[in-house]
Amino acid sequence: MKRAITDFLLLWKDGINRKPLIVRGARQVGKTYAIEEFGNDYFDAYVKINFEETPELKDVFKTNDITEIIQSIELFSGTKLTGENALLFLDEIQACPEAIVTLRYFYEKMPGLHVISAGSLLDHLLNNLTYSMPVGRVEFAYMYPMSFNEFLLAMGETQLNDYLNDFSFQNKINSVVHEKLLKLIRLYYFVGGMPEAVQVYQQNQSLQDVERVHESILKSLEFDFAKYGSRNQQALLIKLLRFIPKGIGRKFKYVHVDSSVRSEAMKEVLQLLVKSRIVHLIKSSTAKTPPLEYGVNNKLFKPVFLDIGLTNHLLNLHLLDIDKLITANEGSLAEQFVGQQLLSMPPFFVDKQLYYWNREKRNSEAEVDYLTVINNEIIPIEVKAGKSGTLKSLHIFMAEKKKKTALRVNADRLSSMQIETFVRVNKETKQVNYRLLSIPFYLLNENVLQRLIAKSN
Known about the structure:
The chain has 17 helices and 13 strands. The chain is of the alpha/beta class. Strands 7-6-8-9-10-11-13-12 form an eight-stranded mixed beta sheet. It has a five-stranded parallel beta sheet with strand order 2-3-4-1-5, with helices on both faces. The protein is globular and about 75 Å long.
């Protein structure tokens, strides 16, 4: 299955000042598969070491002598790592912290060798690394579950994917294409973007088999809790894992998970899930100009889960007839989809964060689902599960921040309109005037956003 990160890896491969690359991401998002495909397709010599499968190779990295390390690897693998087109892949590197340290010496002593490392629980290790971290000697890349566009490619919908990537205002989406894409969006809601689930559906179109894959993935995530959570924390980790899908789209409060547990204890457990990249936090920001991080209120946030397919599985929605399945969670699923898409967009070397806007004032509360930065401008994103819905909160945001362009993501076809209205804010009536770009869920990708936002201004 083609992954978008391959294009990034190709740029890294031919980079002038290339450094060893550390690929980070949650378990089973496809890191190993993508890197193996990359190694086999684009290199003359390729060696993979998995420190969990061959723990005896940890001894090789007890020295910082790169010549000695490479010699041992070549003798073990039977492959020469010489020339300018060789790749060494160190998988599950979290199991061998010494190997992370040696990455700096690969950069300094053997810059011609391409080195990639990956691991599922790297964030835990990197935050608690007792060895010297090779700061400035490594690069990072980040992987997430398959985006909707990657899902289309896996389903054999190459023509549709190309159509969406090249889309512009000059195109008109007819009703037949629109309905087909919405049906595929619906399918993606329940299959999700975990590569194993996508592959199983691709092979036999069995939604029940997809459910079995989802259950297996969730069990493996829970099994990992023993690796980074204390015995007391493990039960809370499971409880929180299963609570998060119910809280998507709503401000998170520790007491909602378990009122008998101290907030501080629950906070520590939540951070463990964040470090594992199972949960992402949408942080409240009041920033008027980029960066959004400058306006963050760390006490206000909403959760997004790892994957929308796993989300539906945890919500206990059975995938027997997607066309007829309308749930009470439509709004939260739409927000999960948008958050997941925003995270999976390029650039892959950025550890992306999610933001939203929240206004907690008496008799004047308001909330905008997401904030993003496009062309160095803050763009608010309002998410609607269907084709319509109130825009009062968006009006208040646009009036307060004096922005010119807003984005609505929903199930309707593409449209652009000038909003001219009045809104009541703090007992004061304010005029608001802005361009609202309304796009269907399937057009939410990096290429389209850049062009459509630029065109609408």
